[in-house]
Specification:
Helix content: 55-70%
Number of helices: 5
Shape: elongated
Largest sheet: 2 strands, antiparallel
Strand content: 5-15%
Order of helices and strands: HHHEEHH
């Protein structure tokens, strides 16, 4: 059965970019409180980048990262004019073609795409000869469709 392949990505250094912005804004207390959070964000992003298994634990990691991005988007101006973080993602169908953008919305869109792709893989790998397998495949494909629709 067919499924949608995931986009690949390059490393992102959240910590350096956020630290630079916070120091520039001269908010000393904010630096210490955000240092650990930025470190955790780097770790989460790295876990997503190097993951090889396409399974529900990976989908949970992507969801956690997506929710974190949503919170960051509300608090920090991540774009080409303020906190300039290069988000590099490769086309899922032409792996050599990469796109770099500095907007957090692009990062969120690629994460949503990969969530849809993960659930399409899960749906495609179900046993379609049983009723339970068919139901599970339908459930996974519906979840995938939801993520693609959100794009």
């Amino acid at each position: 059965m067919q499924f949608v392949d995931l986009k690949k990505t390059d490393k992102v250094d959240w910590q350096a970019s956020l630290t630079k912005f916070i120091k520039k804004e001269d908010v000393k207390d904010a630096y210490e409180s955000h240092k650990d959070a930025a470190e955790k964000l780097n770790s989460l992003r790295r876990d997503i980048q190097v993951a090889t298994e396409r399974n529900e634990p990976l989908a949970r990691l992507y969801m956690k990262y997506y929710h974190t991005l949503t919170h960051i988007d509300q608090r920090f101006p991540v774009n080409e004019d303020n906190i300039k973080i290069p988000f590099v993602w490769y086309d899922a169908f032409r792996n050599k073609q990469k796109i770099t953008m500095y907007r957090i919305g692009f990062e969120k869109a690629c994460v949503l795409y990969n969530l849809g792709a993960i659930y399409s893989v899960l749906g495609a790998h179900q046993n379609l000869t049983t009723m339970d397998g068919l139901k599970e495949a339908c459930r996974f494909f519906q979840i995938a469709a939801g993520f693609f629709a959100k794009l």
